[in-house]
Design a protein that fits this description.
Elements lengths: L7 H23 L5 H24 L1
Length: 60
């Protein structure tokens, strides 16, 4: 009997759920701002395209 829980299946379910939560936190912290550089590059490309489109429309 470990931690007052007599069945190993119940104990393993508790331990695995706590371990899963810890791993999710680690994964989230590791990948916190990973996509922001890609998104910023895409926004800048769209802004340049729109500026070029406005110049084309102004010259017509």
């Amino acid at each position: 009997m470990l931690l007052g829980i007599p069945d190993f299946g119940i104990l393993s379910a508790y331990l695995l759920s706590v371990l899963s939560a810890i791993l999710c936190l680690i994964y989230g912290l590791y990948n916190w701002n990973k996509g922001s550089e890609e998104e910023n590059r895409q926004i800048m490309e769209e802004a340049q395209w729109e500026k070029g489109q406005q110049n084309i429309d102004a010259n017509m």
